[in-house]
Design a protein that fits this description.
Order of helices and strands: HHHHHHHH
Strand content: under 5%
Number of helices: 8
Number of domains: 2
Structural class: mainly alpha
Number of strands: 0
């Protein structure tokens, strides 16, 4: 029998505050990095185009690895927020206190299923190629061979990922199974 804890309205609001502060930290980090790009360009005596790779690298890492880390967290257990930059310490401290106090604990059931490494690789390749293509399309030209090839790699990666996930009972990304549950299938895409 499955039981769920009933939270008071105040605890629900504070739990949501903890989650929102955690999401804010991620966006705040991206903002700090973006605002510092002109300064980094001056320090390293290089063009802004080159320094923008700090942001692109950050986006690639976050977008590509977030689902992977979420899956590993489901398997091995989740952690409270990591401290990334000193400027965020007070915000993180408040978020952590709120999270520990108001997000209800749940027993973590470890899943010992096979790790979907091919699904992970295909997903990361698709996301990374998409971001790489978008970030370079201005310099290369939208219809250049490099841009088209990069987007083709992304498209092939996502299609192969979709086909792989639809034919295997791996649980790397639940998107395929969620869309199937909502009444979607390949013919509607």
């Amino acid at each position: 029998m499955k039981t769920t804890a009933v939270l008071s309205k105040n605890k629900q609001i504070l739990m949501m505050a903890a989650i929102c502060i955690g999401a804010f930290i991620s966006h705040f980090t991206a903002t700090v990095v973006n605002v510092s790009l002109p300064y980094l360009s001056d320090i390293f005596h290089t063009d802004l185009e080159i320094v923008q790779w700090v942001t692109v690298g950050y986006l690639l890492a976050v977008a590509s690895l977030l689902p992977v880390m979420g899956n590993l967290g489901d398997r091995l257990g989740h952690r409270v927020w990591e401290w990334l930059f000193v400027i965020q310490v007070p915000v993180i401290f408040v978020a952590a206190l709120l999270a520990m106090r108001y997000i209800p604990a749940r027993k973590q059931v470890r899943k010992f299923t096979a790790f979907d490494s091919l699904g992970m690789i295909l997903f990361v390749a698709g996301v990374a190629s998409t971001i790489f293509g978008i970030s370079n399309s201005n310099a290369w030209g939208l219809w250049s061979a490099q841009t088209i090839a990069t987007f083709l790699i992304a498209l092939i990666s996502f299609i192969t990922f979709w086909l792989w996930e639809s034919r295997h009972s791996c649980d790397f990304i639940y998107l395929y199974h969620l869309l199937q549950h909502l009444g979607f299938d390949e013919s509607k895409l």
